[in-house]
Each structure stands twice: as C-alpha cells, then as structure tokens.
Fold:
Amino acid sequence: MTQTHLYLLITAGVAAVAVGGWCLLIRQRTLSRRDRDKAVRWRREEAAGIPPRPQDYGYAIGFDSAGLTLTNLRRPNRDPLAIRWSEIERVVAFKRDMYVVDCLCLRLSRSDGHGVELNEEMARWNSLVEALPRYLPGCLPFPAWFHDVAFPPFATNELEIYSRTSPATVAEIRNTNSR
Structure:
C-alpha cells in the first residue's frame, strides 16, 4: 500500500465519521423537537381538562384537598394507589439516570417509611409540583428546588423539599390551622 492510498483511506474514514456524527446530530434535534411538541400538547390538554390517554402516559396523578391518587392508565381495573396529605411525613426530590436523559422524581413517604414515588413522565406532574406547597405547608416550591435537583445532569441530586417534623413546617401548619 502506497502512502497515497493510506492517505486516501484515512481521509475517507474521517469523512465517514464526520458524516455519521452530523446525521446523529440532525436525528437528535428532530427527536428533541418532536418530544418538545408532544410535551407542549400534553400541557395544553392538561390545562384544558382533557383526560390523559394510556398511549401517552402509563400513570396519572390525581389530587385534591384530601390527598393524591396514582392511577395505572394501562390497567384501569386496578385500584388506584391513594395517600392522604396528612399521612405524608417527608418529600424528597431526586433524579433517575435513564442513560440518555434524566427523569425528575418525588418520593412521598409516610412515617412508617412506605409511600409512593412519582415522576415527570406521569400525567399531571406539572400541576402537582406547582400545588405541593398549597397542600403541604412548608414544602419548597418547584422553582426553589428544580435547579438543585436538575443540575448537574446524570447525578441523583437528592434533596428533601418537605419534612413534617422540621420547625418551619410545624410553624407553617400551626399558622394554616389557626386561620
């Protein structure tokens, strides 16, 4: 093999890698735009009160002044999991590493350690994280904890956002109950 052939072979290899990288970048941008469009549609449907569809979500979060429920949309014959606000002792926000992306999660725990884990892939997640301080006095609002949990990427970044036993929470509960 001559030096010219070797040079051509190396150039072809570099060009193939560059073209492959460019194709992956374009594909990633296309998927990201599609995913963003889907997320915008889901938020619009949620705001309009349109029920979540099983093909879009596996689970739906429901909540009111009494507590929250978690319903399996793909197995509607199962009873929803329910937890009352008064049972929740601790809420921890964290991330799960899903290899390519991260998934924001909340673990709501009772005093016995049992509870429920919710994540941003569930229907009505956005409504729930915005409403948590209203139902759990002393809970950090979403903008106050999002950055600390979301960054740096691919790290768990566990953060307690609510504890019923913290002095600030106890004072907030007393103030709410005295009104």
Notes: The first strand starts at residue 59 and ends at 63. Confidence is low (pLDDT under 50) at residues 23-30. The beta strands are 59-63, 67-72, 81-84, 90-97, 102-109, 115-119, 159-163. The chain has two domains: 1-50, 88-178.
